Amino acid sequence: MDDSLALLDDQIAIHKRYSQHPYDLDADVAGALALTGDEQILDVGCGTGEFLRHLLHHGHRGPLIGIDLRPAAVEATNRTPGLRACRANVDQLPFTASMFDRATAKHVLYYLPDPARSLRELRRVTRPGGRVCVSINHTQTAPRIHALVAAHAARSGFAPQPASAVWAAQPGMPDSVTVATVAPLMRATFGNVTIRRRDNALLFPSVASLLRYAEVIVRFSCGVPPQNSHHDAILAQVRDEVRAWFAANNSRPWRDAKGYTVFTSTR
Q1: Do 19 and 200 contact (CB within 8 A), yes or no?
Q2: If we measure between CA atoms, which residue out of 154, 118, 135 comes closest to residue 264?
Q3: Taking phi first (over 0 means left), then psi (-120 to 50 degrees means alpha), and beta for anything else, what does residue 3 get?
Q4: What is the pTM of this model?
Q5: Which of 202, 204, 208, 203 is nearest to 239 (CA)?
Q6: Which whole-number Å values give the CA distances from 55 to 38, 39, 162, 232, in the listed order?
Q7: Confidence class for position 219, pLDDT limits 50, 70, 90
Q8: What superkingdom heads the lineage (predicted)?
Q9: Are 4 and 70 in contact (CB under 8 A)?
Q10: Taking a C-beta distance cutoff of 8 angstroms, is the pair 86, 74 a contact?
Q11: What's the confidence (pLDDT) of residue 214?
């Protein structure tokens, strides 16, 4: 599997296991789309097809189409009968105007160099009366552990990306993509927007559980692969501080805030 996809799987598993409150982003987005089951749906940045499979498994009958820039993601999505994916850029979608009844971009906007342009392209391919649903993580996603890892990575000569979102720590990520700025972007593009905010937190019960997440941050946010000579040293330094914190706090869980917001507009 592509390394970025494997890291994404790790992050999803950690968030599912250690979230303070149960959550289901796929269900939230599907609900916001107000589906009847027959719509033609486009999922931008589909990854390995998790959201499209969610719809398929819940009885959706209409065409389910995804795009992603990663060949491995496209291949993985296409392995599921009933799903179709292709490699494409959201800024230049290879689809005709008004082709889709619904379009989604889950945790994607912060990867894009021009989010406003991408939203206009989503509007173009969505039919009048259709819906476009976008989700983003909150700016402060697990800020405590991100700050700790970033400090030790910086001492080793790395320049970690801002902890604006665990899923979206990418070089060149636009600082403009936040909960406060996406709503005006959606409103400017579609003339309307409905907002649903989900606040949550990660609760890590032990040193080992928190270090598992720290390793993902070292690799994904800081760009330090396991084969790099600094990788183990950074994690060792983080481990020492984390152990000291648990010892000083009578082994109570480490709590780090997180959450996401779903924005829905009608074409």
Answers
A1: yes
A2: 135
A3: alpha
A4: 0.87
A5: 208
A6: 11, 11, 33, 40
A7: confident
A8: Bacteria
A9: yes
A10: yes
A11: 93
